[in-house]
Amino acid sequence: MRYGVCYYPEQWPKARWPIDAALMREAGVNVVRIAEFAWSKMEPRPGEFDWSWLDEIIGVLAAHGIQTVLGTPTATPPKWLMDRHPDLYMRDEKGHARGFGNRRHYCYNHAEYRRLSADIVERMAKRYGGHAHVTAWQIDNEFGCTDTIRCYCDNCRAAFQRWLKNKYGDIGTLNEAWGTVFWSHIYNEWEEIGLPAYTVFPMHNPGLHLDYMRFASDSVAEYQQVQVDVLRRESPDKPITHNFMGYFAEVDAYKLAGQLDFASWDNYPNLHFDEKADPLNPAVQHDMTWGLKRQPFWVMEQQSGSPGGNFIFAMPKPGELRRWTYQAVAHGADAILYFRWRTCLFGAEQYWHGLLPHDGIPGRRFEEAKRTGEELQRLSGRWLGAGAVAEVAVLRSYDNEWAMDIQPQSFGHRYMAHLKTYCRYFYERHIPVDIVAPDAPLGKYRLVVVPHDMLTDPAAAEALYAYASAGGTVVLDFRAGIKRPDNRMEERTIPGAYRDLLGLRVADYGSLRQADARAVTLEQGERAPEGFAGRVWYDILELEGAEAIAWYGEDFFAGTPAATRHAYGSGTAYYFATEPTQVLMAALMDRICAHAGVKPIHGISAPAGVEIARRKNGDKEYVFVLNHNEQPAALALAEPLDELIAGVKQAGEVWLEANGVLVFERAVR
Ligand code: GAL
Q1: How far, in Å, are 311, 442, 460, 638 from residue 469 at the CA level?
Q2: Gap from CA of 310 to ligand 1 centroid (Å)
Q3: Which architecture characterizes domain 392-596 according to CATH?
Q4: Is 301 a catalytic residue?
Q5: Which of 1, 66, 535, 547 could form a disulfide with 61 if both were Cys (CB 3.0 to 4.6 A apart)?
Q6: What is the pLDDT of residues 205-253, one digit of tens each?
Q7: Mutate which of 102, 103, 138, 142 for ligand 1 pocket (most atoms within 8 A of beta carbon)
Q8: pLDDT tens digits for 635-655?
Q9: Angle at 121 between CA 119 and CA 127, to 5 degrees
Q10: Out of 3.20.20.80, 1.10.600.10, 2.40.50.1020, 3.30.40.10, which CATH number does the structure's domain 2-150+217-382 have?
Q11: Is 0.90 topped by the overall pTM?
């Protein structure tokens, strides 16, 4: 297994490099990512290159048996470059340049920057593309990190006009699609069209706004492709990746991943202000990263100390690093690199703690990484390269997320928060899920959940019809089918394209404030059980073949259906007219899963806060049990199981310490 760290040799004296490499080796490190921010060390002055340090460090690492992942340095164009191209700075909605002093200060649509990026990448690729100790390329670093996808500069404006021309062909079609007759926005020429920037009130034409978001995402894909093309040409044998950011949604990661050989992401569980990290978050983001290419992925940066910018987030407690690492592996990670090797003595991230503290002396976190690495090297050969076995797919759609970001409709509502209500159910029930693109093949799943399919893409709708008709079970929910892909409202009665599939129509609807909920019952006319309610939204339904499986218990729509089931072909389509509270979600989904034949990972019962996840390889399955609690947890095994870490057979009641991990191997049933 690839096990490693992110390293910044340019930030340390050369004399320290062999000491670091030896310590890395001691920790079990066999891969190191370097160079992704080192442009000004590679090209200190325009056209003046220095590769000696990079040659040397790759050699030092190689001498210790460590392979290198090279990052292209384009996230940090040097000051000399910016001074030559002041129009390269991104601009905000008010047209202000977002200046020098941090990183990612460039616009993706700057033609000369594309050329300069291709040039530095080509030089790197020519030099290291065939190097025996360079194992992969990482392009740039975290596209979009710190609000750097959407730029409002003149280059972007011109590029947006070209993008639109290419999409719509003639201006009349665009005017029709966006409905520009509204408020006198009719355009005569492409050159008249602007970006959704600063206006008297922040409500742009939704068609223009969504197209701009698509365009901004496509700009990144085009920019990445420039680098991919160079690397494919100059370094055809080395795989290429990019380190994505899980939930981050301003760029369509499916599109970008399509250009790459494998997906990676950066996992920082403690980067939040809550007292305790919610272990659901890494789980969901691992599953999302898996879903980018539907294959094993890398965690290119795994938090290894307390994250810190101007203040400091929670320090991983003893056992957390190991638990996070196993959690990643359980969800399909085939490589883990800790961020960062040693905490830096200077710069904006001098409080961002790595495996080693500032003084460079190995301590608790180093020892934990070392132990974890030893275990994984011993075991991981059994499942590397294999993985997803989910019977459930949750479809993640950037288009729908963007449209909902523009118009959340219900105050404070977020697409991702909604998607997570489903994921939380599956996670708590120990049911593995794949989180995949709307155009992913659905045939192998027993259940497909489609949160907020607002902008009904005709091909995607057709795929859902075909899937249900062939026996699949679909869950759709409120706001499905209300819009066309151009972000105009659907003129047909909603749920538009889904009316036949769902066997119902939405007669009326309203939004609910976040704190408001309406009681929901699972039997018509009964009192709602504790906590059973719908929030965010209510659709008032008229059934046209569907049957109700839950009813509103209050308000003027009391007694009408809050959730429905409809037989379609040999399958079934469910509809949630409101967002179920988590207890109601559990009650509804338990029934739906039972009906669809979706089963939790069997044979191990565990208390709340214990996660059970699984990888399969051939006829064996590997069941990972992770105690995310701060107290020991009692598990009950239905039958004796082989536990791999301790190498013992376990049976009956098994105690798992706080942060503890077990890995069971058994034959697939
Ligand atoms: C990531 C980034 C790294 C480093 C780390 C800590 O988002 O890719 O370069 O900045 O966070 O901030």
Answers
A1: 54, 12, 14, 37
A2: 14
A3: 3-Layer(aba) Sandwich (3.40)
A4: yes
A5: 66
A6: 999 999 999 999 999 999 999 999 999 999 999 999 999 999 999 999 9
A7: 142
A8: 999 999 999 999 999 999 999
A9: 105
A10: 3.20.20.80
A11: yes
